[in-house]
Amino acid sequence: MKKKKGPFFLFLAAFTWGFCLVGQAEGMEFMGPWSFTAVRLTLGGLSMVALSFFLGDGSYKECLKPGLICAPVILASIMFEQYGLLYTGVGKCAFITAFYIILVPIMLYFLGEKPAKKIWISAILALAGIFFITMGNGFNEINKGDIISLGIAITYAIYIIVVERSAGKVDVVKFSAVQFTAAGLIAFIPAAFIEPGQITLETIQLSIVPILVTGIVSCAFGYTLQILGERDTKADEASLILSSQTVFSLLAGWLLLGEVLSFKEYFGCLIMVIAIVLAVLPERKAHD
Questions:
Q1: How many CA atoms lie within 13 A of 98 on its CB side?
Q2: pLDDT tens-digit profile of 214-257?
Q3: Which residues fall within 8 angstroms of residue 113, CB to CB, at 6 or more apart?
Q4: Which of 172, 190, 244, 255 could staple 14 via S-S, CB 3.0–4.6 A?
Q5: Is 55 left (phi over 0), alpha (psi -120 to 50) or beta?
């Protein structure tokens, strides 16, 4: 029996995003959120255009419609994240964002699909795990960043479902090229009005490492892995696997920054692992 590769690609995507999170925060040191996002997404898209000459056998024509549909959705999710981090802590932002784990099966239910019981159980366990990892000391007060972070959860849940339904059979590399190039070009418009003069050779040079890391590795590589993963993984299951990014972010902090994990964080990681394993385990079929 052929094993699905989707969960592996999704874990790899979550791993990539977890280790690239530092670069995304540092990228706004010399550029505003719109300017940084416009540059990194365009770079990610153009890098995929270059790669498409060597990989893939599909045509850009079949990727154009799904790519243009997904572009504004992923741009909205990324911008909610960028602005959310300006007003709230990383921990609170990560926990509130993780509500997409619950939103995906709810949205699928209203779209006529009935997620398995294990998905609901896994989603609740995953939220509990993320709470212990990111919000072990609780909420002090609700601020503007917390409300913005809810926008990430909603738009990313929509994105996961849209990718599953519109990009399942198209060429992944060309789809990513269209999606991120379009999203980057769209971002240049508000950047010109909201943050005039922030995209210069000097600011790009000062932010070159975060731009390269988040543009090529996180954006082009990470999201392409997500698209590959969703080809043979249901949207509700995919959302749970992708939520492991929180665990990988902690691991990155420990390995790269020397951050020490607390008992609550270790406990949260354990719950997350249990939730994800439960989600990806094949269901038993009843014997006649």
A1: 30
A2: 888 887 788 788 888 877 787 777 877 887 777 777 677 677 66
A3: none
A4: 244
A5: beta
Residues 133-176 pLDDT 10s: 666 555 555 567 767 877 888 898 898 888 887 766 788 888 88
